[in-house]
Amino acid sequence: MIQSLARAFKEQKQSLTQHHQDATSSEASSTTTSAGVPVLNPPALSPDSRQNKITVCGMELEGISISGQETCIIFPRAKVTFDIGRCPQRACFQQTVLLSHTHLDHVGGLPFHVCTREMLSLPASRVIVPQGCGAGVRRLVDVARELQNSPPLEFEVLELQAGDDHILTSGYLCRCFPTTHTIASQGYLLYSQRRKLKAELLGKSQEEIRELRLAGEDVTDTISVPEIAFTGDTSAEFLDGLLDPALEDALKARVLIMEMT
Questions:
Q1: How do beta strands 186-197 and 173-178 pair?
Q2: Region labeled Disordered — which residues (predicted)?
Q3: Which of 53, 188, 192, 228 could form a disulfide with 98 if both were Cys (CB 3.0 to 4.6 A apart)?
């Protein structure tokens, strides 16, 4: 898994480097003069050129991560976005925003997410934030509402802390784990929920199992499988918390997305 992830992001880096070189070349060729003053007319970067889509371990991920500018990782299968950055267009169609922390490059696009979903008559945004960040996040959206003189916006803010669980509308179990940053922060781990025949019923015939089910007995156990984890900005010190069960599972996830501060 680690090798696949490293290869995917190496290819992404090469693509971005080539794009930068092309843009630089284009800037040089599009230099004009106005009253003897050089004027650069570089082509604007389209959203598609700034976002990247990759598939890792069968999971489609899309988004952008540029230090100090914006971070938004979209996981459409779970209908979530890890952080919101400047709110890329596709992020608007994911109902749940999992905020790792509230630095502007991770939260700045939230008002646009909330407003766009309301404008498109989509279910209200659901924003999960670290403990103590809820009031500030609400004020951020309220200021945007006030500036555009719009009626109150419907959206939900839920404060969670490390170890807390939340069932997403997509059916995934979301669990918070501790990270270390300059302000309140946390990571998120998503588990898929699977049903498995109880161990004591292995070897029983289908007819016997059917009779037990008809009699009202539960014949399966729910198995939680760690699928994808996101740290947000963090230092390596968060690894000191390896005794935390949620963090242990995060490091066992099929896909681990890390931003090292």
A1: antiparallel
A2: 13-47
A3: 188
